[in-house]
Amino acid sequence: MDATTYAAISRRVAETFVAAYAGYVRRRLAAVGAEGPTLEAAIAQGQASLAASFASWREASPASQRTSPLELFREALVPPTAAAIARGISPPDRDDAQEQALPGDLLDLAPATSRDLGDEAWEAHVAWGLARAEAIAGMVPRSSEAAVAGVRVALVGTDLMDRTRIGDLVSAAGYELLVWRNPAAVFAGLAEAAPAIALVDLSHPAANEAIERLATAGVRTIAFGPHVDDLAMAAARALGADEVLARSRFFARLPSLLPRPT
Question: Of the residues 115, 150, 195, 198, which has the fewest C-beta atoms closer than 10 A?
Answer without folding.
Answer: 150
